[in-house]
Amino acid sequence: MVKATINKAHYACSVSNGSHEIIVDEPLELGGTHQGFAPKGLLMASLASCVAITLRMYIDRKAWDVEKIEVDINIDTENGETVFLEEIICTGSLTEEQKVRLEQIASKCPVSKILSAGSEIRSKVL
Prior knowledge:
By secondary structure, the protein is of the alpha+beta class.
């Protein structure tokens, strides 16, 4: 479970999972205090980190020579649909076949699966 708490300060929000806490905020130009990721940026960070971790696990299991993995995420809209654009940079020695396989594996990370399948959100105000 994750819990977000916001007081009257615009718009710094404390987010906790019980063990760790982060600040999520809006940028100054949107009236926030710019103390942390904006919510949309945090969503992109979740996807980028999930892809990076999933690829690291796969690469380590295969014992491929990759020193570093960088995942850049951007969001765009095409034909009214949200599209997450991933650019993955692996520092090391990979064949073209390995790169193609890593593109397939990237789409299998848990956050990618959630975003690509769509979700239902149910809200209840207590």
